[in-house]
UniProtKB/TrEMBL annotation, chain A:
The keyword Transmembrane helix applies. It is a multi-pass membrane protein. It comes from Actinoplanes aureus. Its main location: membrane. Residues 110-311 form the ABC transmembrane type-1 domain. It comes from the Bacteria. Keywords: Cell membrane, Membrane, Transmembrane, Transmembrane helix, Transport. This is ABC transporter permease. Belongs to the binding-protein-dependent transport system permease family. One of its GO terms (biological process) is transmembrane transport. The keyword Calcium does not apply. The chain crosses the membrane at residues 21-42, 114-134, 146-169, 189-208, 242-268, 288-311. GO terms for cellular component: plasma membrane.
Automatic annotation (TrEMBL), chain B:
Residues 29-58 are annotated as: Disordered. Keywords: Signal, Transport. Residues 1-18 form the signal peptide. Residues 86-435 form the Solute-binding protein family domain. Pfam families: SBP_bac_5. InterPro entries: Peptide/Ni-bd (IPR030678), SBP_5 (IPR039424), SBP_5_dom (IPR000914). One of its GO terms (biological process) is peptide transport. This is ABC transporter substrate-binding protein. One of its GO terms (molecular function) is peptide transmembrane transporter activity. GO terms for cellular component: ATP-binding cassette (ABC) transporter complex; periplasmic space. Belongs to the bacterial solute-binding protein 5 family.
Amino acid sequence: MRRPRPGDRSGIRWRMLRRRLYAAVPVLLGVVTVAFGIVHLIPGDPVQIMLGTGGAFVDPEREAALRQELRLDRPLPDQYLAFLAALFRGDLGQSLQTGEPVTALIAEAAGPSLALAGTALLLGLLLGAGGAVLGQLTGSRVLRAVLSRLPVLAMSLPAYWVATLLLQIFSFHLGLVPALGSTGPRATILPAVTLALPLAGVIAHVLGSGLRTAERESYVLMARAKGATRTRVLLRHMLRNTAVPVVTLTGTTVGSLLGGAVVAETIFGRPGLGRLIVNALQHHDYPVLQGIAAFLGVTMILISLLVDVLYTYLDPRVVSTAVWR
Amino acid sequence: MRLGIRRPVRALAIPAVAALILAGCSAPSEPSGGSATPRPGGTLTLATDSDPGCLDPHQSPAAAALLTGRGVVDSLVAQDPGNGALVPWLAESWTVDPRATAYTFTLRTGVTFSDGSPVAPAAVKANFDRIADPATKSLLAAGMLAGYTGTTVSGDRTVVVRFSRPNAGFLQAASTAFLGLQAPASFAAGPQATCRTIVGSGPFTVAEYVPQQRIALARRAGYRWAPRFAAHQGDAFLEKVVVTIASDNGVRSGSLRSGQIDAAGAVAPRDAVALEREGFPVHRREQAGIAYSLFVNSVKEPWDDVALRRAVSRAIDTAQIVKTLYQDRYTRAGSVLTPTTPGYLATSTQPTATEAARMLDAAGWPVGADGIRSRAGKRLSLRWSYVSPAREQRDLLAQLVQQQLRAVGVEVLLDPAPVGDVIASQSRGDWEMSDISFLRADADVLRTVLQSSAGGRPPIIPDGTLADALAAGAATTEPAVREDSYHRAQQRIAEQALAIPVYNPTYLLAVNKAVRGIAFDAQGLPQFYDTWVDR
């Protein structure tokens, strides 16, 4: 294989992307298969839950009829193959509870989830990176000490507590934002802050300790010796070198922001993927659970691709190793 | 042991509740200084705890589907929340054959669905046929039509609904929104379409439904067929009712306090106490149906011994439970049925731990070294698998019961589990202790919910005397015969300690002072037809 010319980076990026996309197919198949297996391993039976919720007596005749109607009477391998075949056509099936197409349910919940996750991610990055950089630049020992300890606090705050506190202060007492019933920008602030705080903590922690380590690196000494200011060295050299783990971390966080925002969604009364998952779990709504797993799987694969591409911009070495693989 | 003793359970409730029940809940006390004449217009915003998932009461078994569904669909008959009597609604009159297998309804004229189509015999047939059709995947309503063989249209105002076996509970079932009438044209798009919006002949229409977020109802103009017990006739007062979903208790009460909503539904008792203190009126109504009760599996050894079951029921101090967990905002259950259920008979006895201990001694279960009773190496224990996450603090209740039974030497092994596990273990008959409550304003609920059948979910184990009494109640629509049958059934349940009634599930609705005319339906859920806002 030919060694790439220094200017040929974009071609290499495309080749790398294509290879990753091919590799994503078996990964996705694995994800949906595991999801299928896990949801069918959950103890309890959807038909009995549907008929027996609230304590009603389950009439065996109606149980059998419903099971047949939902096609849950067929052997599991058949159900699996039917699921894969439909998935291949882009059909995720229908919710057992309401009969609505799973794709429609996901599309409906994904909007508010993406808005919330996006805002939280942005806030988390700003707060986290801002805190870490400020901690590095400040001359004040006290501020530096405070900023190096805050992240651990932010990480350990339980979402339930933060959400309730934020609501009490900003909605119930100050009346600045509505507590309920909206997914508009104003109603997104508090849940986004709830999700952003622990994320900011993690980012500030990783970036902060990365920056403190980089301080002692020879390239920093070199740059300083050549007369660059502290700020310039930090922003031009150190940040770029310490950003790689932060980008990885951010990438892996997006999935949990999308599907794991259950607490924030519940307390703030927002629709979203997290509540869709919990509701589907409670009712053993297999198609919905499988559909969300497939959706989140695809999302995570796309994000990890994006992260890989970002690496190539942050660290040229990634491109050269990627091409020799 | 004294059994079947009538106790004035209502007298235990604080006077406000008693007044509310006796007044049929249609006229709560009005704060002084406000206008007494209902003022039409305005919006009521209400936060409730759960999303029905599906708005269609034909399909959904959720009480949340009734909360909004009742305002949208009317039923053939109406149940007066004051006395439980069934009165005309969309049906002007009806007759029932002596075996309770054929119901002939004569429909009221001039009634239309909100899509303009008439509430005609063919529509009644289309509704019941649809509920019974397996493709509708009805989870509760179809069970109310047990034995349904079809509806025949005879004449332009008359329908006959037929059953293959007696179904005396049908008339009351027909008064619920579960069997409410929807516009047949709305069925064409399939069951999933009516999950999103329902079309009925009620005083409100569905304006918007955003799952997990809110349901908006809009007033329908030209409504002229409210049941006669309603406080007024004609259009609803409120222009709009917006029901927001907020599952967190604190968020609902906080939103009410800060004026973001007008009413908070399903308020936790602790929050109700605080809100009352701050001057927010809290309306309450004991829900009809099966009281929250505990069941001891009477076919599992050693609990097939009635003396042991009686001892356990005497050892559980329900007065302490309602006081500590529910601040007496829920009342002690007096029977397996709640007091607002027609046919209720108070059967409960005073709990006494010393008496319970004496009964257990007499039954031959001495206390061991660790304080737990045992006989021939077998410990006297009860495994209790309950649904987690629990509502109404039932997890704490389970722990309190565990302590109370431990005090008399009975060990309770608590097993909080997801609802799927709990239902599965009960379906297998693999349970020792269980708990349920069930919403329905007819004593026939004892038969449909508690009676055993192969493969079903049997909290109560087959008992000949009980089965006879329940069958007798289900085979006639004669009120006196039914009442007598259900009294016998409740006495038998108490005598055999088949159920241990604990508390009466109670709907608590906190409102701001401007909200007037809150009413509850016979099931015990708030209704907004007579509601208006004084501002």
